Amino acid sequence: MALTHLYQQINQSEWVDIPTGWLQGRTIFGGLVAGMLMQKAVATIADDSKRLLSVSITFVGPVQLAKAKLTAEILRQGKSVTTAEVRLWQDGAVQSILLASFGTKRESSIQVNQECTAPDYPSVEQLKIAQHHPLAPECFKQMQMIWAEGQYPCTGAKSPDFGGWFRFDPAQHENRPMNDADLMVAFDMWPPGVLPMYKTMAPASSLSWHLTCVHPLQAELQDWLKYKVFTDYAGDGYATESAYLWDANNRLIAISRQTVTVFA
User: Fold this and answer.
1) Which of 8, 44, 137, 234 has the highest Cβ tally under 10 A?
2) Looking at residue 1, what is its pLDDT?
3) What is the pLDDT of residues 12-33, one digit of tens each?
4) How far apart are CA 235 and CA 229, in angstroms?
């Protein structure tokens, strides 16, 4: 099922069929879950004048390859900012919760430009697209990913973190303008920053995820984007990390903060 078809289902009904091809182990890839929640939020607010400002997601429980129910509520609709909550349900239980704020531009005398500068990676043509490992999650087949710094997951690296280029695989996804739901799906595709330190294959999963949007998204689905992750701390089975996403013109699009459960 194409993402556009999935989004259409979300726009038209509370109940949706989660498509195949997005498994991450035995559960559904968290980025797809986040994208579904975001699409429901956008459809509920239904106001193109308000762009995404920030979003927080808690992955309460595992989402299975089965029907899911999405419920949404506008918590407050102010003059500039609208805040909505969306929940994903399976088997009568909440499995994921999204809280998102959308807003319009406001007059302000404050202007600061100190955003994190994009790394100077070699061009896509100078690097090699990562091949899908037989033991890697199925969902990785949806994207093309290029490591430009750091090591691959599960290689026993002495230090965490990496960065590179990525995009939706043109063989899997037809080109069109990216939307907020696509942003959530794409941004979460990169594995946690500590995974290069794993010596063998073992799970890791997002527990909570907060995203702040900076410049408006102006990319298409097949455009290359740039990514870099930094792990602040890892211990006792959890990790805290920051990640950054830029477009091909080095405009900072979004900043991510995640708490990750580590099983190694």
Assistant:
1) 44
2) 64
3) 999 999 999 999 988 999 999 9
4) 17
CA-wise closest residue to 186 among 221, 138, 162, 151 = 221
**What's the predicted TM-score (pTM) here?**
0.95
User: Residue 164: what residue type?
Assistant: G
Residues 6+ apart with CB under 8 A from 28: 18, 22, 62, 63, 64, 65
The pLDDT score that the predictor gives to residue 231 is 98
CA distances from 165 to 139, 160, 233 (A): 17, 18, 24
DSSP 170: T
CA distance 209 to 171: 29
- Written as one string, the DSSP assignment of 6-70 is HHHHHHH-SEEEPPSS-EETTEE-HHHHHHHHHHHHHHHH--TT-EEEEEEEEE-SPPPSSEEEE
pLDDT of 135 reads 80
> H/E element holding 257?
strand 252-262
> In Å, what is the CA distance from 164 to each residue of 36, 40, 75, 159, 184?
25, 30, 37, 17, 17
Distance of alpha carbon 17 from alpha carbon 52, whole angstroms: 25
Which residue bears the tokens 């939706």?
168
Query: What CA–CA distance (Å, rounded) separates 130 from 123?
Result: 15
